[in-house]
Design brief:
GO molecular function, one term: potassium:chloride symporter activity
Strand content: 5-15%
Structural class: alpha/beta
Family: Belongs to the SLC12A transporter family.
Distance between the termini: 20 Å
Number of helices: 33
Number of strands: 19
Number of domains: 3
Low-confidence stretches: 1-66, 133-139, 796-805
Helix content: 40-55%
CATH architecture of the largest domain: Up-down Bundle
Organism: Anopheles epiroticus
InterPro entries: AA-permease/SLC12A_dom, SLC12_C, SLC12A_fam
Largest sheet: 11 strands, mixed
Shape: elongated
Mean pLDDT: 79
Radius of gyration: 38 Å
GO cellular component, one term: membrane
């Protein structure tokens, strides 16, 4: 129904029908607390609220808002956290394992591969950080959307948990090496064994828990001092390689794969370097003797260099994040790369492969100051583990605050004390404990690498998608980024994930897809609108391309489908019809159109009212759970507005071909949003004493006249659109149809009651009716109903006609088979016996477009026509006791340039009213 009101008004005028259109009108914590929360800056900050059209540039490179609290520069804020994270547990514990098994050539190649992947991913991170203002509180799901971003965010949370377990395992190894039974005699200060190690790891994990609960903020700002300690310890290692002579080093007590107790360290020797150039894979004594190969070694190596986002995580404390993040991250990547390359070369030149393969912590015994290595191991691993535990808890807090999983994680938000997410920290701690049960550091490292690679893949995917879609507000100032760098980074991470461990990689991808599906089904629908989603940008790009390819000149009847434009004044009174048309569209276009009556005057300073109402109609579509678009227009009259909607609805070749109107009647409207037993009951559109979508109450007059309504029917047909007039749909109850066996039929009456002919009982209009009825009959709720076609034969058949040679029933049956429509044919005996069609045919033609425009109607003919329609109505009602929906033939309306046009419109509509009186939900089709 259509509302007629001035544009300054906030309420629609009352509607006038129980159906649709007829009738009228009617965590800002420091350091790693920002893990994965920077990617929303792809689109920078939102447009100012005083620019409703959103045409201003999104954000600026500087960030004056809140900059007073930013104190860190490039070195302290980015370089130190990134370098420290990339040294992690690898530098003192596993570089020897890598060189001893892969050889120097493969080791250097693996470092190059890893750092190439990291470099291209850093390029994407730098593009994000230089694309406008960088804030510290927008997680990746706000760029990728709640489904993809939420799932990737969850996997990144798991990656932090696994990374924490990896660091704790490395720290425990360092403790065992220095205070456990490290020599062959089994002597030592503390005992060793699988469960003893688990106890030590659990103790370290608990210690980290206490630190995070008490002093996480203080730790997050000490990364520069911690890095200094690690670098000093690393320098002592380099000096030892250059100065230490040959010595014998004990084999760890836990290594039961060999029968010797010591291995040789040679110092700088050419023959040692030569022997370590090529790979020599053996078994890993820390993982029950599992065979080592290229994938295992690379998985361990990559797990140690997954810290490139540590600088972006600190953006909330950086004075100039858009400059500091690229400069600090790239310099830290270069610094750690050179350190690892130098360390690998020195290890290969000084240490035998036997020692490298059988004592992964050999750096301590060969160091001229062994205590430095111990300090380096404990400092690097403990700080990395603490950083990951903080990061995991903050990621979990972000997921909870953004309600990615709805109310499932509400306990995290409730369990926050002084900005410290206590509940999230404890939950992360429990998961780390579960990871520690794996035991082997090398196994944990592979899982950690795969999860971080998937996160890096998502980062590259986000940037690639935005770059490909040509989003105008993605303008990073980092000049070395392009879609090529993002694609190479994406491809590299995807390939190496499966190289490391195809089972882990496939499992993580499957888990990600399951999370995508779950979040699509259960996450709040409003999140995509609040955050923006890369999927929307990608869909826009693809839809535009395919719409241009969709050519209306190539339409073919084999692939025809109904594309509906349902004209609605107030959805309160026509919810069943909205839902029914959604069923009838059969995968086609469905547009719900509404005309707001008013005038957009030049001197009127108010905004277009359709802009404000559009979101209300979108909420209606969500509430009704229909797959429909919404089109609103402002017009001086309902008729003019409908013409607008018919012309402009849809786009390209996807335009409605069928217009659906409510019937013009006097029936009282029902409010399906308030009706107690209504499946559409809701209070969503009632607030502050104002009801959205008002409708015509009892006693209120209609604002759309009969003549205008009939002219609208004529307009639709002249605009070459199929037309459906729907009546009695307030009686439709799909739930009753589903559970009640009394409703059994869908009926089709393929005869023009106003001009009955027998030459072809199945003309174009009848075929269209059959098509619509067949489509409804294909859907689950309607499938149990039988489709009936009623054959109405008259005795006015010429003996020379083809109909005389072949009975109409046979022709109709053949047509149904040709169209592959399963329906039963029912003849109407009364049609020939009780009704004189020859007598009424010329009379009824006066009320249609086929009549002589100058013919004057006699009162006697009008009364006889009404009696005729009442008799037809009785015949139809007698056969409709178990009918769900009836399809009937709609005659053309009176021709416009005719004598007594207004009277003909009234009589035309009166006859249709008599014809459809007290029937089940009825659709008049032309």
């Amino acid at each position: 129904m259509i509302a007629q009101n001035n544009v300054r008004s906030t309420n629609n005028d009352p509607i006038e029908s129980s159906e649709s259109y007829p009738i009228t009108g009617g965590s800002n914590s420091a350091g790693t607390s920002r893990l994965i929360r920077q990617f929303g800056s792809l689109f920078s900050s939102p447009a100012p609220t005083n620019d409703p059209a959103g045409y201003v540039e999104f954000g600026s490179i500087s960030d004056p808002v809140g900059s007073a609290g930013r104190t860190l520069g490039t070195f302290a804020g980015v370089f130190c956290p990134v370098a420290l994270s990339m040294f992690s547990a690898l530098v003192f514990i596993r570089v020897g394992f890598i060189v001893g098994n892969a050889g120097l050539y493969i080791t250097l190649l693996q470092f190059i591969i890893a750092y190439v992947i990291l470099l291209f991913t850093v390029s994407s991170v730098c593009a994000i950080s230089t694309n406008g203002a960088v804030e510290g509180g927008v997680m990746i799901s706000r760029t990728l959307g709640p489904e993809f971003g939420g799932s990737i965010g969850t996997l990144f949370f798991l990656a932090n948990v696994v990374g924490c377990g990896l660091a704790i395992s490395g720290c425990a190894e360092g403790i065992i090496e220095n205070f456990g039974p490290s020599d062959g005699t089994g002597s030592g200060t503390i005992p060793d064994g699988r469960w003893w190690r688990f106890l030590y790891c659990s103790s370290l994990n608990t210690l980290m828990l206490i630190v995070v609960l008490i002093g996480a903020e203080m730790f997050a700002k000490t990364s520069m001092m911690i890095l200094g300690v690690v670098v000093i310890c690393l320098l002592s290692t380099y000096i030892s390689f250059l100065t230490q002579g040959p010595i014998e080093v004990n084999i760890p007590h836990e290594n039961n794969l060999v029968n010797f107790t010591t291995a040789h360290y040679t110092g700088l020797r050419a023959d040692t370097l030569w022997s370590n150039l090529h790979s020599n894979y053996t078994k890993d004594y820390t993982s029950n003797g599992n065979q080592v190969n290229f994938a295992v070694v690379f998985g361990v190596l990559f797990s140690g260099v997954t810290g490139i986002m540590a600088g972006a995580n600190m953006s909330g404390e950086l004075k100039n994040p858009s400059k500091s993040i690229p400069a600090g991250t790239l310099s830290a990547v270069l610094f750690t790369f050179l350190c690892y390359m130098a360390l690998s070369i020195l290890i290969a030149a000084t240490t035998t492969s036997t020692l490298l393969q059988n004592n992964f912590l050999f750096l301590g015994p060969i160091n001229i100051w062994p205590t430095f290595v111990t300090i380096g191991i404990l400092t690097a691993t403990f700080s990395t583990g603490l950083s990951n535990l903080i990061g995991a808890s903050r990621v979990m807090e972000a997921l909870a605050k953004d309600r990615v999983f709805g109310p499932l994680m509400s306990f995290v938000v409730k369990g926050t004390y002084k900005n410290n997410p206590i509940a999230a920290v404890i939950a992360s701690w429990v998961l780390v404990e579960a990871i520690l049960l794996i035991g082997s550091l090398n196994t944990i490292a592979q899982i950690n690498s795969v999860l971080f690679m998937l996160s890096y893949l998502a980062t590259n995917l986000a940037c690639l998608g935005i770059e490909i879609t040509g989003a105008p507000n993605f303008r990073p100032t980092y000049k070395y980024f392009s879609w090529h760098t993002a694609f190479i980074g994406l491809l590299g991470t995807a390939i190496m994930m499966f190289v490391i461990n195809s089972i882990y990689a496939l499992s993580s991808i499957i888990l990600c897809l399951l999370l995508v599906i779950a979040l699509h089904l259960f996450s709040p629908a409003s999140q995509g609108a609040q955050w923006g989603s890369i999927s929307q940008a990608l869909m826009f790009h693809q839809v535009r391309k395919y719409l241009l390819m969709l050519d209306s000149r190539k339409d073919h009847v084999k692939f025809w489908r109904p594309q509906m434009l349902l004209l609605v004044s107030s959805p309160r009174s026509c919810c069943p019809l909205i839902h029914f048309v959604n069923d009838m569209k059969k995968g086609g276009l469905y547009v719900i159109g509404h005309v707001k009556v008013g005038e957009f005057a030049d001197n009127d300073s108010s905004n277009d009212p359709t802009i404000e109402e559009y979101t209300q109609w979108l909420s209606l579509v969500d509430h009704m759970k229909v797959k429909a678009f919404v089109e609103l227009t402002l017009s001086r009259s309902v008729r003019e507005g409908i013409q607008h909607l018919i012309r402009i609805s849809g786009m390209g070749a996807m335009k409605p071909n069928t217009t659906i109107l409510g019937f013009y009647d006097e029936e009282q409207s029902k409010d399906f949003f308030e009706y107690e037993d209504s499946p559409y009951k809701t209070a969503e559109f009632d607030g502050n004493g104002i009801k959205l979508f008002p409708y015509r109450k009892s006693g209120e007059s209609k604002s759309l006249g009969v003549v205008d309504y009939v002219r609208i029917i004529d307009d639709v047909l002249r605009m070459r659109k199929n037309l459906c007039l729907c009546r009695h749909f307030h009686r439709l109850d799909k739930q009753m149809i589903a559970r009640n066996n009394h409703i059994r039929y869908i009926d089709v009456w393929p005869v023009n009651i106003f001009e009955p002919k027998n030459e072809d009982p199945f003309d174009v209009v009848s075929q269209f009716m059959m098509q619509l009825a067949c489509i409804i009959n294909m859907l689950p709720v309607w499938k149990k109903l039988e489709l009936r076609v009623f054959l109405c034969e008259s005795e006015t058949v010429s003996e020379n006609s083809a109909a005389f040679e072949r009975p109409a029933e046979h022709r109709l049956d053949q047509r149904l088979k040709l169209l592959r429509i399963s329906a039963s044919i029912h003849k109407i005996p009364e049609w020939n016996k009780d009704i004189d069609f020859a007598k009424h045919r010329n009379i009824l033609k006066q009320f249609t477009g086929s009549s002589d425009s100058n013919q004057v109607m006699a009162e006697e003919n009008i009364n006889r026509s009404k009696l005729y329609m009442q008799r037809i109505n009785q015949i139809i009602r007698d056969r409709s006791n178990a009918t769900a929906v009836t399809f009937m033939y709609l005659p053309t309306p009176p021709a416009t340039p005719s004598v007594d046009y207004k009277e003909k419109c009234h009589h035309y509509l009166d006859l249709l009213t008599e014809l459809t009186f007290d029937l089940p939900p009825t659709i008049l089709v032309h």
